[in-house]
Amino acid sequence: MRSTDAGQAMRARARMVDRLRTQGIRDERVLAAMQGVPRHLFVEEGLAYSAYDDTPLPIGFQQTISQPFVVARMIELLRAGRELGRTLEVGAGCGYQAAVLSQLATEVYAVERIRPLLDRARANLRPLRLPNVRLKLADGSLGLPEAAPFDSIIVAAAAIGLPPALKAQLAPGGRLIVPVGGADQRLLLVERQGNVFRESWYETVRFVPLLAGTE
Questions:
Q1: Distance CA 135, CA 176 (A)
Q2: What is this enzyme's EC (predicted)?
């Protein structure tokens, strides 16, 4: 798809957005953000023809780019009647979700533990010239203390339990969404109300595990 015209890519994105609507995504700003980001530029050229299918795709290093529905659903749950504000993304991967978040958040801090993937995310994002996205090599399970607190935190890897560092870096009134579990995973939404943390469980998902350290 990289070598075809922009019109074909736009039509493929429009079909993807129509499918997201039929799957139950209702937040029009999330749908517009998904429409606005050229997903095919974030995958290998040989997989570009599948970029707008509702499926995860490999991006190397045993990592994947999440299927469009999961990206849209997690962001929709984070927004739900409010602005994303200052946002932390744990697991930048190829940079796609950071690009979508950039359309909706005032600032996006995206951390990635695998240096070659971080380099790829930087290269993928550079042509889009997104001034509100910052990338950093870091252990995502520890969050990003120097930029905390965050109004929104989104985790693109499955934790065994809620990482305490991420919970601690959530601003009052903020929300955190993270896949939790091992073989069986579900989305956990955490909302901070003062010093009270309210938890809500959502769909079954499948993510690579959240690992510590950098490489």
A1: 19
A2: 2.1.1.77
Q: What φ, ψ does residue 8 adopt, rounded to 5°?
A: -65, -40
66 within some domain? yes
- Which amino acid would we find at residue 52? Y
> What's the whole-number average pLDDT of the chain?
94
Identify whether 151 is part of a domain.
yes
Q: Please indicate, yes or no, if residue 210 is contained in any of the structural domains.
A: no
> Does pTM surpass 0.90?
yes
Domain of residue 184, residue span: 54-205
Backbone angles phi and psi of 139, in degrees to 5: -75, 105
Distance of alpha carbon 151 from alpha carbon 177, whole angstroms: 12
Q: With contact defined as beta carbons under 8 Å apart, do 179 and 188 qualify?
A: yes
For tokens 């399970």, name the residue. Answer: 141
Residue 105 scores a pLDDT above 90: yes
Bridge partners of 192? 197
| Total domain count, the chain | 1
Domain membership flag for residue 139: yes
**Which residues are catalytic, by number?**
66
